[in-house]
Amino acid sequence: SGSVLKGAEGAEGAEGAEGAEGAEGAHRKMC
Q1: pTM above 0.90, yes or no
Q2: Exposure of 12 by Cβ count < 10 A (0-12 exposed, 13-18 middle, 19+ buried)?
Q3: What is the full DSSP assignment across 1-31?
Q4: pLDDT tens-place string over residues 8-27
Q5: φ, ψ for residue 25, nearest 5 deg
Q6: Of 7, 11, 14, 27, which has the fewest CB atoms closer than 10 Å, so is most exposed?
Q7: Structural domain count, the chain
Q8: How far is 31 from 29, CA to CA, in rounded Å?
Q9: Among 25, 21, 26, which residue's Cα sits nearest to residue 3?
């Protein structure tokens, strides 16, 4: 549950590209 939120925060961080990819990866694993 927290992985998605952390991914969103990561996207807003300095490395937005990696954060976005991490968020998608976490979402895929959850679904």
Answers
A1: no
A2: exposed
A3: -HHHHHHHHHHHSS-HHHHHHHHHHHHHHH-
A4: 666 566 565 666 677 777 76
A5: -60, -45
A6: 14
A7: 1
A8: 6
A9: 26
